[in-house]
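To whoever is on call:

I kicked off a structure prediction for a single chain this morning and the downstream step that reads the tokens threw a length-mismatch warning. I double-checked the sequence; it's 150 residues and nothing unusual in it as far as I can see. Pasting both halves so you can look.
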Amino acid sequence: MIVLGVDFGKKRTGTAYVDMEIKIPFTLKLIEESNARKVKRALMDIIEEKNIKTVVFGLPLSDSGVESEWCFEIRRFSEFLLKSVNVDVIFVDEYGTSKEAEFILRGKKKSVKKNNTDNLSAVLILENYLNMLRLKENKKVIEDINEKND
């Protein structure tokens, strides 16, 4: 199964994908567009081409975990996308992914940073998603062990 990660932005939307068999995310396509319909069309093309069943959107929560106004826009866009495609949508905290991407790309040319920050942020969103799945798995294993010991 292939999962699509999306760093939805006002001017650029970064995308990445992960094959859940190998669990290594890769950058995909930078969508340099501010028009929501065109971003939707580009995502629909990716979803069809890669046979995506799950889309993970990053939500830029505050450091205290509160959703921002932009989180509302991302959720609204995901609903707009769901009117045209049959996928599961998952939201993960993307707090700090842009800063982390900028840190990873430090020392690179400005054009390299501009063209890669959003896609790298999408990779980091997928890393957060994979970490969330691992935590759930580990929690389940601990619960099973505790049940056996009771």
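Update from on-call: the warning came from a stale cache, not from the record. Cleared it. Sanity check on the structure: The first strand starts at residue 2 and ends at 7.
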